[in-house]
Structures are given as C-alpha cells and as structure tokens.
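Researcher: Next entry in the queue.
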Amino acid sequence: MLALLAGTGALPSAILAHRPEALVCEMAGVPVTAPEGAARLGYRIETLGTLLADLHARGVDEICLAGAMTRPEIDPAAIDAATAPLVPRLMAAMGQGDDATLRAVMALLEGEGFALRAAHEIAPELLPDPGPMGAVPFTPAHEADAERAASIHRAMAQADVGQACVVRGGLCIAVEALPGTDWMLESLSGGMASGGLLYKAPKPAQDRRADLPVIGPGTVEGAARAGLSAVAIEAGGVMVLDRDATVAVADRFGIALMVRA
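Model: Structure for this entry, 261 residues:
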C-alpha cells in the first residue's frame, strides 16, 4: 500500500491519478489539494513517530514524498513518546539546510522499513522529453543564457541554496532561495528582468526520489509577469504539471519553453 507524505501544489493529485487508493498524509499547517474521496490522515511533525507506526499498522509499505513543504515550527511540549527519539536527528539535519533535512527524512523512512517511490516513477509522463515544448522558438540568445544559468545553478547547488535562477544577457538577475520559485519571480519588478530566462534543474547530487523540481502553468504565468521571454528546464530532472495548460500559457505570453538535454 502506498502513502503520500503530501505537501501543497498539484503534484499529490497527479500521483493520485495513477494510485487513487493511496493514503494522503496531511501535516498540520500544510493544506493538501487532493481529489474528493481521497483517503486522508492528519498528523503533526511532533507525532511523526506515531504516524509511522500507524502506517505500518495500516499495511503501508511504500511512501512517496509529493508536494511543497514549509519548515514546521516544532512545539517541544507536543512531542510524543514515539517521536522523541527522532528529534535530535531531525533537528541536527534541519540546521544544515534543506538537502540535509530531506536526506535525514528519507533515511528515517527507509530505516523504518518503507520503500521510497519517486513521483515520476509513479507518473512518468511528468518528465517531458528533451526539446521545445511550445510554439515560441528558443533562440541562440536563450541558449547562451541557459548555459550561463546552468553554471550558476551548479555553484548554487554547492551552497544548498535553490533549484532555479533568472539570467538575462549573461547576467544573473535572481536566484531561488527558501521562499521558492514563485516568490523569486514575483520579486522581479521594474523591468530589470525583462527578456530574461528562468532556468530550473535539480541539484546535481540530490536524491531524485524526492524534491525533484516542478513547473506548471503558474510558473509560466509568473515568468510572464516578470517579463521573461524563456523558461528552460533540465531533461529528466524537472517535472511539468498539467503539461497542456503549461504549454498553452507559454504560447499565449510568447515565452519559449525548452527541455534541455
């Protein structure tokens, strides 16, 4: 049986389209969008140990991490006996950055006997083939900015900063940090990024079973509001939600959409 440790966004619903019987585990303060009738189980981060025991009791043997999560505030008084032994390990990882936290959670789940399933393993259509995705041509200038963005992205990954950046004419205009891609795009105003390119890719050394980058119609709309002219993603490393709508938005706003091999 599959359980989703679910977050915000459209990814949980995309997984449930393939595995409608999956149990949606919804952390307090992180609302999950899921189809009507989906089985749900609420929990708090302070009762994670009890949740894992409950999943075993329900026959869950696979877990998929799907959707965006914010760092929870932990109430020490709410930590239950089953979770207390896990806290030092998780707190130490949270102090080292997002990658370390994710690795610690994944190691914990595997140590508890659960098999981790990647979202794109369950829904392979989320990973598009290399090449252009829309009608707007990807120009040599776009490719030059994408190449520059890829090198900046590699440097960002060394510092565990983010998975996206914006480049225009070879200059880095913005980088993604903890608030995420949408916030980064919304922060671009005044025309400084006009004509620029959004680049998104996974961190080179990250475990691709979780936290694989995602774009969708909202991402392209944000790029349009920022005045960007192109979006480039890494082939095999970025999931595209609601592909038809994403391409339609890109075409409507004259944004080139490229999956780079």
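Model: The domain at 127-260 is CATH 3.40.140.80 (Cytidine Deaminase; domain 2).
Researcher: Noted, moving on.
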